[in-house]
Specification:
By secondary structure, the protein is of the alpha+beta class. The protein has five helices and eleven strands. Helix 2 packs antiparallel against helix 3.
Length: 184
C-alpha cells in the first residue's frame, strides 16, 4: 500500500488527501473522518481524516503514513514519539498497550466517552459495539479501589468488559486484568 501523507497540526495529525484518508481508515478503522465521525461504509469516508498521535506513530512505524510538520518537513517515528511525550502524559505506556492490541488484531479507539483510555473492538466500529474498555497504568502506579468500582459500573452499564493494562516499565511486559461485574 502506498504511504498516505499527513500534516501535524498541534497535537493531532490530519490526512487531507481523500484517497489517503480512505486507505488509512479502511486499513483498520484508524482516525475519525471530520465530515462524518461515524461512517457506516467506506464511501462515507471523506477527507480530512483526524488521527491521534498514537495512531499516527503506529501507522508511521508500519510504513503506511508519512507525517509532515508545520514547515513541510517529514517527521521520523522517533520525532513523532517525542512530540507525543511532550503533549500526552504516559504517552509511552499508552502507546505500548495500543501497539500490543493492534498487533494482536484488535481495533483500538479512544475510550474517553467511557472514562477509559481505549475502547477495543474485535471487528470494528459500525460492525459491533466495543466489547472492552481498557485503562492503562504503570505497573507500580496506585489505583484507588473506588476508581475500579466506578470504572466497573460505567463499563457494565455500557455493556463492556473493563480491563486494566498494567505495564511494567522495566521489563516492557503488560499484564491485562479483566473485571467481571457480579451481583452477590
Amino acid at each position: 500500500m502506498t504511504q498516505a501523507r499527513a500534516r501535524l497540526v498541534g497535537g493531532r495529525v490530519i490526512v487531507f488527501d481523500e484517497e489517503g484518508a480512505r486507505r488509512i481508515y479502511a486499513s483498520g478503522f484508524y482516525g475519525k473522518p471530520l465530515a462524518n465521525p461515524k461512517p457506516r461504509s467506506l464511501d462515507q469516508v471523506h477527507a480530512p481524516l483526524e488521527l491521534s498521535l498514537i495512531e499516527a506513530l503506529y501507522l508511521a512505524e508500519k510504513g503506511l503514513l508519512t507525517v509532515y510538520d508545520e514547515e513541510g518537513r517529514p517527521l521520523t517515528p522517533r520525532e513523532l514519539a517525542e512530540r507525543g511525550r511532550s503533549l500526552i502524559p504516559s504517552f509511552d505506556l499508552l502507546y505500548r498497550v495500543y501497539r500490543e492490541l493492534r498487533d494482536a488484531g484488535y481495533v483500538v479507539r479512544s475510550g474517553l466517552k467511557y472514562g477509559a483510555d481505549f475502547a477495543v473492538y474485535e471487528r470494528g466500529p459500525g460492525e459491533e459495539h466495543a466489547p472492552y474498555v481498557v485503562h492503562v497504568l504503570g505497573y507500580r502506579e496506585r489505583i484507588d479501589p473506588l476508581e475500579i468500582v466506578r470504572a466497573g459500573r460505567v463499563s457494565h452499564s455500557a455493556r463492556k468488559r473493563f480491563i486494566i493494562a498494567a505495564v511494567d516499565e522495566e521489563s516492557g511486559s503488560t499484564t491485562y486484568i479483566m473485571f467481571k461485574w457480579s451481583n452477590p
